[in-house]
Design brief:
By secondary structure, the protein is of the alpha/beta class. The protein folds into two domains: 6-125, NAD(P)-binding Rossmann-like Domain (Rossmann fold); 136-229, 2-Layer Sandwich (Alpha-Beta Plaits). The chain is 34% helix and 29% strand. It has nine helices and eleven strands. Helix 2 (37-43) links the parallel strand 2 (29-34) and strand 3 (49-52). The relative contact order is 0.10.
Amino acid sequence: MIKEKIFGIFGLGAFGNEICEEMSKKGAKVIVFEKEKKLIDKIKNSVTQAIIIDTTDEDALKNSPIDNIDVAVVAIGTNMQSSIITTALLKKYNVPYIIARAISDIHSQLLTQIGANEVINIEIEEGKRLANKLISPNILERIPISKNQTFAEIMVPKSFVGKSLLKLELRNKFNVNVVSIRKFNMTIDDYGNPQKDDLVIFPKPQDVLEDNDILYIVGSDADIEAIKEF
C-alpha cells in the first residue's frame, strides 16, 4: 500500500495560510508549524495537526513531528533570517523535500545553497508576470513548463481570423504547437435572454479561427512573441 504523503507548512502568513486551506480542501494531510497562537487557532480545525512553535529553535523543532513529513513548505515571508534557519534545520534533520519561499534574489540563492530542493520567488515571478502582461496584453497567461518551453494563452491575432490552422502553418512558421482553442458563442436561452457560451476544442487542421477565439499554445517565449508581432 502506498503511503499517503504528509505535508508540513512552516509559517502562516497569507501565502502559507492559502496553501493550508487549499490542500486541506483536497483532503491532504497537513501539519502546520507557527509561533503565533492566534494564527494557529484560525486554522487548527482545518488541518491534520497544528503546532505552536518557534521553528528557529532547534531543540523544539527536532522534538516536533518533522520525522513524519515528506514535503516541507517554508512559507515564512518577510523574516529572511527565520526562513533561512528553518530551512537549514529541516535539511539537517533530513526532511526529504523542502520548498522554500524567497523574497529576493539573494534570499533565493541562500536558500538553494543551504539545501532547499525548490525555491519560489513570488515577488520576482509576479513582477515578471505583470511586465509581460503590460508589454503583451494579448498574451493572457504564460506558464513556464521547462527551461525553454512556455504554455501560453493568447487572443487570436487579427491577421489569423478567417484562416484555418492548416493554412496558418503555425508549427512550421512559428515553431509553436496549438494545444486547444476556446471559442465563444452567443445563444438564446428558453426565456429569450442572450447567453455567452464557451467551448474548448482540440484543434484539427481544418478548424478556422474566429475573432475573439483564444489559443492555448506551447513554444519558446521568443516564438510566442513572434506570433504577437505577426
